[in-house]
Amino acid sequence: MPIRRIRVFPDPILRKKCRVVRRVDDKVTDLANDMIETMDSAGGVGLAANQVGALQRVVTLHLPGDEDAIVLVNPEIRDTEGEREVIEGCLSFPGFEGMVKRSVTVKARWLDENGSKMKVTTEDLFAQALEHEIDHLNGILYVDHLLEHEKLAAAGSYVDPEEPHMHDVELEVHADHSDEDAEPEESDIEVVHTTIKFSDLYSEDSVDKMQYDLRKAGYVIDPPKATDQTHDHVESDDPHLDGGVLLDHDHSH
Ligand code: NI
């Protein structure tokens, strides 16, 4: 089950319509297994076959909290109800997210990896993922749903101050080079300043390249924010190790 290369915007295959699967055979399940491995290793919730270069109506989903991923062959939306605004991202737009309108309730049907008929009426992330992935099969991308006043932004920049979230963290690490039992001398302690950047989860280059590609295609881009939020400083009396994970840290926006 090899991991496949995820195609990123503006790869033209993302604009192609995928073909209906006539028979759920070994080729289809092999593709689905590769997609699951690719999706899981990228930390994605969903993946459509054209995102890994296969023009077939196959989607994989792995919802957070679910033990197993699911395979959806020829998925179709039967009905939708309601409207809500959600923040969305896509493995084909690494480093970006944007606000889109999605349905509250989605009714869908598909074939599973054994060719059995499945159907669901669902809400929340499952509903959102169904709409997002079935769009992919039709060559539609979430950026197409952004309204004029809504912009793409760097991933992680939509922050609800009430919710737990991540910041760049500046650490001062005191490394003690003295013998284990001896009281450390000042000269034995090496002070290392280090910053864990949330933004480094994506490389700067890939975000820059994606910004360029999106601008060229006429999308409005909110530039990724400068990483000046390095306001956390950890100190400790423990000379052996200074620094650590911040929990319940008071911060403001
Ligand atoms: Ni996507």
Please tell me how large the radius of gyration is.
23 Å
* Total domain modules: 1
Mind telling me the CATH class? Answer: Alpha Beta
Bound small molecules, by name, code or SMILES, are: nickel (II) ion
In terms of DSSP E residues, the strand content is 25-35%
Order of helices and strands: HEEEEEEEHEEEHE
Distance between the first and last residues' Cα: 44 Å
Low-confidence stretches: 197-201, 225-253
Task: Provide the CATH superfamily.
Answer: Peptide deformylase
SS summary, helix count: 3
Helicity range: 10-25%
- Given helix and strand content, the structural type is alpha+beta
CATH architecture identity:
Alpha-Beta Complex
Could you tell me the CATH topology label: Peptide Deformylase
How does this structure look, described?
This protein has 253 residues and is an alpha+beta fold. Helix content is 17%, strand content 26%. The chain has a five-stranded antiparallel beta sheet. It has a three-stranded antiparallel beta sheet with strand order 4-5-8. The chain has a three-stranded mixed beta sheet with strand order 10-9-11, with no helix packed on it. The C terminus is likely disordered.
Task: Describe the structure concisely for a colleague.
This protein has 253 residues and is an alpha+beta fold.
